[in-house]
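Human: If only I could read backbone structure tokens as easily as an amino acid sequence. Underneath my words sits a plain record pairing an amino acid chain with its backbone structure tokens. Take your time, and here it is.
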Amino acid sequence: MIYPEAGMQAFFLIPNEHVATFETPGADPRQGVVEVPEGTDLRARLPEGAALIVEDNVIIAMEAEDHMRACGFADCRVAGSVAAAMDILEHTEIAFAMLDINLGKDTSAPIAEALRERGIAFIFASGYGERTLPEGNFTGVPVVTKPYGERDLRSAIARASAEHR
């Protein structure tokens, strides 16, 4: 192992068959999304409390947390499973949530139902767009399509917050 002063670096090789099978969502993920100008401070419109991020991929979860903090959530709680998310909901005042739709063998539908029961606004995140919404009445919930950026997230948060009021 070589440990350079600048930090560790990694080089990944992804076999072609994995790249070739990537499926691009058919629907435009920006359809129906409220545009929020860059630099808009959402803090004034966000409810008090923590943001819940449910994501089973640790790298994506870390990036999502950075984006949520940039959108104004100072306290972000990350869960990688339905059980961990439900535990956070029981013990933390959650103001908003972003739920990865597909959590391995589970979906985030039970978490979405619990958020609805508590009156908490949320959005979904998916690598496949709206066509992978979990079973239930979630058709009006905004979906950010992976890979998403801060601008996409701001827009979805604004839309979910506006529809939730």
The chain has a mean pLDDT of 79. The chain has five helices and seven strands.
